[in-house]
Structure formats: C-alpha cells, structure tokens
Design a protein that fits this description.
CATH architecture of the largest domain: 2-Layer Sandwich
Protein name: ROK family protein
Structural class: alpha/beta
Distance between the termini: 23 Å
CATH superfamily of the largest domain: ATPase, nucleotide binding domain
Strand content: 15-25%
Low-confidence stretches: 1-12
CATH topology of the largest domain: Nucleotidyltransferase, domain 5
Number of strands: 16
Organism: Bifidobacterium aerophilum
Pfam families: ROK
Mean pLDDT: 91
Number of helices: 11
CATH class of the largest domain: Alpha Beta
Family: Belongs to the ROK (NagC/XylR) family.
Strand order of the largest sheet: 6-5-4-7-11
Length: 384
Amino acid sequence: MTMDEQAYTGSFPLHTPGKISKASPSDVRRKNRSLIFSLLFPTGQCSRAELGRRTGLSRVAVSDVVNDMLDEGLIRENGFETTTTGKGKRGTLLSIDTSRLRIISIDLSQDNLVQGAVTDLLGLPQQRMEIALGPDIRIGVDTIVQFVDELRSDLDVNRIVGIGICAPGVIDNGVIRASTALGWHDVDLKATLERRFGIPVSITNDVTCAMLTERFFGQAGPNLLFVKNDHGIGSATLIDDVPVVGEHHAGGEIGHISIDPDNGPECPCGKRGCMERLISATALRERMRQVPPSERMGIIRQAGEYLATALAMPVGMLDITDICVYGPADIINNTLLDAAQQQLDRLTASTFHARSVIRRCQCGADITLRGSAVSVVRHYIEEW
C-alpha cells in the first residue's frame, strides 16, 4: 500500500467505535478525511504541508482530501502562515468553515421544554426555537417531526449536514430503547426522521452530548469521566477520545446504582439508596427544604462524599484523572466538590495512580445542543 493510500493509525478526536473490517480505497479516503478534519476541529489552523507532516500522508493525498473538503464547505482557506522555515512562499492556512454548512440540533433532555437550533459546524446556534410543555404533557414523535420541519424551512437542504437529537435514556443506533423521562420504549426516531427528511440523523444520549461539548469547547482532554446531575444522574466516559457506550448501549446509566442499599431511601426501581434518590439535585433540594438552614451544607458535603465513593471504582479501574461534574450551581458548588475531592483522595491515593481531580463543568446552557451538533459532525465525517 502506498503512502497515498495509507490511513493514519493513531487516535484522533472524532473517532467512534465500530466494526473492524478490511479497508477499501473509499474507506481509506474517508479515514484520511476524518483525520485531517480532526486536526483542524474545532479551532485548529494548519497549512497543507503541516497536515502532511502531522499525518504522514503524501502531498498528493493531502491535496486531494483538502480540495474535496473545500468544495464541500467543511473547511476554508484562512490567511497565510506567519513564519516559514525555508525560502518558499508562505503556506495557506486551513480551518473549519463555519459560514456555509448547517446542522439542525434538538434537545429533548429538559423538563417541560424542547429546545432546537440551527447551528454551524462548531455547534453555535444561528437560529433558535423552543416548545414549552405542560407539566403532564410528554412530547411525541410527530411533534419532533414538525419541529424539524420548521427549523429547516428557511435552509437550503444541500447545506444541511444532518439532524442531531440529544435525548435521555438508552439509545442503540438511533433507536431509543428506554427513556423514563420521555416515556418511550423502542422508538426508532432515526429511521422516522430520515424517511421524512432524507437527511442523516444522529441520536445521542444527552450526557454523552454534554461530554462532547466539554471535550471540544471546555477544559477536557481525550480521557474524561463526565457526570451530569440534575433531576437525575447520568455519566459518560471518554477513553482515548472514544465514547464508551457499553455492550447494551447503557454505559453511564448510573442513577439506579445503589450506594446505600440498607439504609437509603426507597427508589421506584425497587432498591434502596439509589444515586438518584440520594444525591440528584432534585433529591437534595427536597432534603434541604426539610431541615434548618444550618444543616443544609452538611447535606451537600455528604452528597459529595457519596459521589466520590461511587466514582472511586471506575476511576481506579480506568485510570482516569479528569472528572467533570455538570449541574446547577446551588448543588454542584465548592462545598460538594471539596468534600468529593477529599473523599476521592482518601479512596484512590496510591504510588502508581496520578491524583484524580473533580471539577465543575464551565460550559453554558447550550451544552447539550452543541454536543448533538458535534455528534452529527463526527458521524458525517466518518460515514458520508
């Protein structure tokens, strides 16, 4: 196999797990395209020569892929190198093009609210919509279809990269197998939307979406344990830039893991002491309402200790040093994080394991919307 045909074998940020098979020339080209795009995403700038040096691909191979991506609207030429090592002309810099292609992103993870946006390739909303639902109203597939239809009404269909949906629950290749929040079981939302609109659709768990935003637009690196704490508790794990989804696509569904099975509160799932009943934001607020103000910080500190105890095992098993917690500021605050850090240090300190740090996620309210857009881009680059 020539250098032009070789696919880079190192890890790269937009890699997703899949089956391993013998690579065809189109597979190799797609792999090379994914690699080059990943070196630029989200805010990188490289010349063609630098891309060649960093990937090991020949100048011809780089030029072929770059020219296709320029024509497609994925990247753009963005000025010139400021310094050169030789006497030749300065190289033209390439970066992600945020002006041409668009993504339709919809967030189904919030209580009584559906949010949607038309975003650029970096997930930044260019147009917004939302639907407020009554307390006893659950969204249906027909409503989502209408929502997408309105968001795409003013767009050139040839400029739409895909539709991204972030949803709570267990999601298996576009099928929402189980979502308590939505009241859905075995709903093939991906197939429904693709039949209706003829546009690629990516359905992703909401916590995974939030983790992707933290990875590319926050402070995270390629290895991350991400926890989302709101009305429920979920987690997502990134190892060498690959999201860990699990054998049955339920990786990260930690809300009903019991951390106090003997004395904890009863849970609708039938166990006692589940994480959602003990330390979710909803549960903690309810407990704090029932005690004097002087006792509330003690409840928050205990929640931090419970959280660290639950995370100590995966931290030690996977050797992850970055733990990011996303949630409301009245719950995920310094009191909780300090207590969690002290407990985690006690449980995981060793001579061969680097110290794991628990920190608060700094990404804003669009964290899931942006992450669903990243998921669309990832699948588009690798599969289309």
